[in-house]
């Protein structure tokens, strides 16, 4: 089963069919971008945890969380893929408030902190570390999709819109349709080509001027490091990443802001997957995938740096 899944995923990465489902291509692209910004130590850490079942690839591991969310034993994880942000994008008011939008700490911001914390725990079975990593990879992708940080019409699922002449819903247009149609038309149907093009721009092109400003170490990871430095005896230093307002909440706010500027800016019966709207949305999607890919890499680099080499998991 596992091998069949990996082979299918590998095939999908090489020649992504148009219909494949932050959808599969969005997550793969975030993973492929991140792989190009991982430190050597983080690469080793990821390989160690993911091992052969994912060819040590962030991209291949990135969609596991979607594949289990409907299984009875993982039903609890479904609500961690998004934040039900109850703001008002149609009246141009985009705000994210933890108390209002993350009741009981069950939302994507809390989940990112939670799985960062889990990954820092040196003494845990490999399967648990693998699960934490796969959740973290996935949620760092999802949080970049503006309709994963918006409650209106269930994140757009309930809004019928037109894409390539067919009626579909707005959420799907943002998760998959616009990105997949661009990948087919401009990148020979290959998510790898799309990701390489993004990485080139991030390293040498227009985006290279801003990349470094996209990430700052979460205060919680910083304090974790400081604590280790100041108290090398500490077995399990205090660590609370769950509500990292500076970092994880900031990313959520950034994605949510697109709900006010772009996502709902269409007219009745407008074609959304070609022309004006698609061009505008694709620019947002490019930026969000680049950012989340870079942030995923830097988060993992920081997690690995925060753990003393002898405390890092070894499996
Ligand atoms: C934190 O991770 C544990 C282990 O997977 C899970 O049971 C719990 O629901 C998670 N909570 C959040 C908010 O992510």
UniProtKB/TrEMBL annotation:
The species this protein was found in: Phanerochaete sordida
Classification via CDD domains: S1-P1_nuclease
GO terms, biological process: DNA catabolic process
SUPFAM superfamilies attached to this UniProt entry: Phospholipase C/P1 nuclease
Assigned protein family: Belongs to the nuclease type I family.
Domain of life of the native organism: Eukaryota
PANTHER family named among the record's database cross-references: ENDONUCLEASE 4
Leader sequence segment: 1-21
Keywords per UniProt: Disulfide bond, Endonuclease, Glycoprotein, Hydrolase, Metal-binding, Nuclease, Signal
Residue stretches in coiled coil: none
Descriptive protein name: Nuclease Le1
One Pfam family recorded for the sequence: S1-P1_nuclease
GO molecular function annotation: endonuclease activity; hydrolase activity, acting on ester bonds; metal ion binding; nucleic acid binding
């Amino acid at each position: 089963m596992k091998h069949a899944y990996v082979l299918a995923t590998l095939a999908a990465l090489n020649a992504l069919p148009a219909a494949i489902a932050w959808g599969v291509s969005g997550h793969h692209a975030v993973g492929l971008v991140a792989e190009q910004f991982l430190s050597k130590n983080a690469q080793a850490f990821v390989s160690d945890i993911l091992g052969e079942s994912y060819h040590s690839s962030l991209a291949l591991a990135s969609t596991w969380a979607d594949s289990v969310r409907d299984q009875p034993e993982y039903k609890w994880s479904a609500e961690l893929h998004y934040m039900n942000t109850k703001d008002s994008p149609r009246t141009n008011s985009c705000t994210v408030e933890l108390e209002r939008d993350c009741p009981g700490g069950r939302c994507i911001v809390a989940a990112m902190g939670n799985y960062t914390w889990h990954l820092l725990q040196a003494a845990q079975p490999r399967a648990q570390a693998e699960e934490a990593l796969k959740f973290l990879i996935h949620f760092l992708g999802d949080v970049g999709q503006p309709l994963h940080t918006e409650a209106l019409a269930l994140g757009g699922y309930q809004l019928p819109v037109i894409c390539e002449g067919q009626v579909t819903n707005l959420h799907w247009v943002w998760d998959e349709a616009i990105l997949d149609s661009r990948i087919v038309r401009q990148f020979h149907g290959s998510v790898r080509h799309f990701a390489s093009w993004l990485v080139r721009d991030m390293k040498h092109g227009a985006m290279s001027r801003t990349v470094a400003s996209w990430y700052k170490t979460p205060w919680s990871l910083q304090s974790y490091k400081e604590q280790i430095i100041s108290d090398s005896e500490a077995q399990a230093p205090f660590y609370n990443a769950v509500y990292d307002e500076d970092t994880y909440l900031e990313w959520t706010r950034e994605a949510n802001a697109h709900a006010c500027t772009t996502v709902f800016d269409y007219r009745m019966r407008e074609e959304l997957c070609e022309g004006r709207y698609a061009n505008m949305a694709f620019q947002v999607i490019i930026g969000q995938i680049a950012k989340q890919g870079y942030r995923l890499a830097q988060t993992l680099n920081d997690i690995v740096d925060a753990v003393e080499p002898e405390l890092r998991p070894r499996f």
